[in-house]
Amino acid sequence: MDMDRRSVLGLSAAALAAAGTFGSNPAAAKAPLAGKQNAGFYRYKVGDFEITAINDGFFDRPLEGFIKNAELADVQTVLAESSLAGDKLRIPFTTSIINTGSKLIMIDAGNGNVGAPTSGAWMENFKAAGFSPEQVDLVIFSHFHGDHINGLRLKDGSAPFTNAEIMVPAAEWAFWMDDGQMSRAPDAMKGAFQGVRRVFEPIKDKVAKYEAGKEIVPGITSIAAYGHTPGHTAFAVNSGSGKLMLMSDTTNHPALFVRRPEWTAVFDMDGPTAIASRKKMLDMAIAEKAQVAFYHAPFPAAGTIVKDGSSYRLVPVAWNSAI
Ligand SMILES: [Zn+2]
How many independent structural domains does the chain possess? Predict the structure, then answer.
């Protein structure tokens, strides 16, 4: 008998109908189409700390011109290895919340209501995860790009995290808040400087500036990962035997920059320095046998790094019903 796909499906439907189990129950409710994804949060443990990944949507970036030092065809070949075809790349946003048991700490604040229209569900997802903004004790920033800072101050100027202390990388502050740097910057970058001032100017006397290579709060150590921006910072989170490396924007989408760390995105302000930081961080994650979390990896943006020949691969975390 020719069991091609159509005949198999046809037989199954006929068999089900004959058995009276398909389409014959008058009481069956018609479920409306949901039309949207469920709330985007995911929890996992690092030692005694509880980490909650909070999704903030995505931004579709045309591939053309995205990578400064590779041909478009080569970029598309590497993306195809991850079943990502086409002429654009979906760049997701995910922030990490660390509950140490005594403090609720956010790393970066998402797009707020200032980013791409496909982003902006951060607060809804944060609340769905059981948090409220006034519970946040501390917001630590990795760097000052808009997709990481705008959630601290919404479009109307309000600041949702009313009880939070704010910590920023000293090197990042020194660059973006410097009027000379702003006046010398190319016109295309002026908006980024103005965005930083929109968020931080009203609290400029209150933010704490941290140095790289220091345990800035118990269990969280800053790591210089410069290049993406002048003060771009990653973090090592340690609790008991648990280790997590928060990679921030050490890579943009891992399907490109974990696979090809020698490529550099248009967002990397100093390409060669960003490449060196990227390789250093990926090697460190392997040597430390640490979990990793990225800001721009597909949700929940966590996993482990493995070596793959002369390259690397992100093994995404498997959804776990227990934490
Ligand atoms: Zn980013």
Answer: 1
